[in-house]
Amino acid sequence: MYTESEVLDYVKEEDVKFVRLAFFDLKGVQKNISIMAGQLENAFRNGVSFDASAIYGFEKAEKSDLFLFPDPATLSVLPWRPTAGKVVRMFCTIKYPDGREYEKDCRTLLRNTVKRAKDEYGIDFRIGTEIEFYLFKLDEKGEPTKIPFDNARYMDIAPMDKGENIRREICFTLEQMGIQPETSHHEEGPGQNEIDFHYSDAVTAADNAATFKWIVRTRAANAGLYADFSPKPLENEAGSGLHINLSCSDSSKNLNALAGILKHAEEITYYLNCKGESYLRLGEKKAPKYICWGPENRLALIRLPAVTTASSQRLEIRSADCECNIYLVLNLLIHAALDGIKNNLEPPAAMAGDGMSEQLAKDAGLKSLPSSLDEAKRLAEASSFVKEALGF
Q: Is the pTM of this model over 0.90?
């Protein structure tokens, strides 16, 4: 949690030559501008301009020139760059020329929602993520193929699991950048991997997830591989999800939060699953289809994992995938959770066990998640809740 002066001192003392100013478009794709280290003090004071009309989702900005103001608390050294003439990265706040925050700056939107939750409800949300991805081989021209890096399966070990060394390098890099991974292992699909993160506040969790994707792609490329975060890269194999673990600082509110998320699940699915391919994953191979919850039920939309102490209870939201904009997703989930807390909502009956049949869902009167991107988009566009939560 550095201050501006500490960052400026670090840059001078540690031979930093380049500063990457990072931000995100509305798809959650990271963008950046590099400046020379000598320009950093001016960037803190006056920002760095960019052409908003060229950024997805920003095209209709009130003014095409927007400004990036680096957040000193997010300083990270890029460990894969040279140690002489270091390169550092900071996430930025996007503002209009007159100093107003840009309303489609998804990171600022999430930060303001977190502040509201604390100021109005006295609630802090803790977020942890579990991120799945595939590693594929490249062809002779260096282009990605659909040939998996290995044929290992769930929690297999080397030599069947060929991703072990790459996952280790990824975890080392994360630690060097101040990010704490918890576990890593081979997943169910051939060439599929998972790395999970220790919980943190929502903005840090989103920053870490975004940084993670960048690190994985970089390390995979260095190893002559392609890292694929798409939801269903192989037709007959497990899809890749982004499981989001959420808990309230007041654990007595967890079930109210759960009820709020279930209430709004249909209308926010478009943001959790924003590709047509996403809907090939849902309902297949442990990815949820029905809007329900259950203790230890891996086919429910929200699972309550087994815990050793009541204070560590969390909600595992299992529908999202890595094509989403994690900042918008966490913003919507927190808004939904706050609706449940504010109105003291109670969840429906839990679906116990670790299974879900069509007949069981029908007997319980469960609603399904949207079955296509078009259906999800229609529900989101008609939702007053989504419009209020996003503000655009």
A: yes
